[in-house]
Fold this sequence. Notes:
The chain is built from 14 helices and 11 strands. It is of the alpha/beta class. The strands form 2 sheets. It has a 6-stranded mixed beta sheet, sandwiched between helices.
Amino acid sequence: MKKLLVSLFAFIALVVISACGEGNAQTESGKAEDVTIGYFPNLDHAAGIIGKEKGFFEEEMTDYNVSFTHFPNGNDFIDALDVGNIQLGYVGPGPAINYFLAGGDVVVIGAAANGATLIVSREGSGIYSLEDFDGKSFCTPGNGCTHNVQLEIMLQEIGLVSNRLGGTVEHQSRVNPSSMVALFEQGQIDAAAAPEPWGTLLVEEHNANVVAEWNDVFLGEELASVVIVTTNKFLENNPEAVEQALRAHKRAVDFTQENTTDTLETVNELIFQLAQTRLPDHVLEKAWERMVVTTETHADALQAWANASYELKFMDKDPDLDGFVDTSILDRIVSE
Length: 336
């Protein structure tokens, strides 16, 4: 089973379905004809996966040609948003905040999940608590990503600093979550701040230690692990497309909350479509307990995360997120 899973994750690490070249077709008025939606093949992206696989987006967005593409990390997602290869989609708040503060055109129009960050260590690494990270190594999906900041701010609180800041804890970034299995198996990394279901997979199938549960991680129960974003330009030119997408998103969130078994089977089926194998059911079930699928966006938690990122020197300026969040359309849909 372990060799099969390692092969699966190596395969997923190589498969990134890209949206086409120069952006999607638009009319002269700026109205879109094609809409490409981005997401990650992670469990906390269940709303996006369900919306895609159950056809909710196509059913709601009848005036548009809707397509989908997935990404291994938030940096690649933001790059695609920046050049117009995707128009909206699901991403962790960290990359979106970093892009916004760098002057990028991005706006959070809703949330998709809270939680879903698990801090785990490799069997034999000697790491059982945060204090044990001194002189050890850890990996995250991206430098300054949501999970990276969550772990590093917890380490800083006990006096440990990553090598990025001259400290004794080595950080390896831009590690595709699916590749963490191989790194653990080969002994190349000691720990990970992992999104679900990859963290639980490491625990259940590869004997990793749980160092910090999802609700003990910094802002674990309040910080959105996944937000749905678009650009202000697309929102201004295509408000009806955004509203229709958010209606599909709300349907998807409702479905996941009411149909756990079907949701997990659908997520697993998506992985099967990529690599012709499935994750163990018990891994998905346990991972599902470490997150909450929701439309509720805690803007104060996003600001607190940004403040922590600044404190860790991932940002050069004190972060001001004014204008970053606009959930007015989704709030209206939820209240109907």
